[in-house]
């Protein structure tokens, strides 16, 4: 009888883990390393900085005349501003994703109001005592 109860308990734990795992598994996100768009923006920014330095050098050694220098420098500055703005947009998107992730993690740390057992996200009933989980407003 005790063996049977232990076997049933192990089965219940196995089923709970199997069902709950997809709910608590971390989602894929743009924070994953090697997100190419971001790296490409930094490469373009560095390239424009190098071009600006080379242009200044060429101007100071007299390889180009005033008018050409001013036109080329303005174009590079506009390009640099566009890239920095794009990086800024990406940074904001990452900040927002971090905030969403923190919010999600806080929500997954909710506990049952009846027994205090930890609750997984989107759980409708407490896995420990079976009480229905009260609805939570979520964006
Ligand atoms: Zn409970």
Describe the protein's architecture and organization.
65% of the residues lie in helices and 0% in strands. With 139 residues, it is mostly helical. It has 2 domains: 33-106; 109-139. It is rod-shaped, with a radius of gyration of 28 Å. The model has no long low-confidence stretch (mean pLDDT 80). Bound molecules: zinc ion (ZN). Zinc ion is lined by residues 112, 114-115, 117, 126, 128-129, 131.
Give the topology string: H per helix, E per strand.
HHH
Distance between the termini: 48 Å
Low-confidence stretches: none
Strand runs, count: 0
Shape: rod-shaped
**In percent terms, what proportion of residues is strand?**
under 5%
* Domain module count: 2
Biggest pleated sheet: none
Tally of individual helices: 3
Mean pLDDT: 80
Structural class: mainly alpha
Helix percent reads 55-70%
Q: Tell me which ligands are bound.
A: zinc ion
Gyration radius, rounded: 28 Å
SSE topology sketch:
Elements: H1 2-24, H2 36-60, H3 66-108
Zinc ion is lined by residues 112, 114-115, 117, 126, 128-129, 131.
Offer a quick outline of the entry.
By secondary structure, this protein is mainly α. It is built from 3 helices and no strands. The longest helix has 43 residues, at 66-108.
Give short descriptive properties of this protein.
single chain; 139 residues; mainly alpha; 3 helices; rod-shaped; binds zinc ion
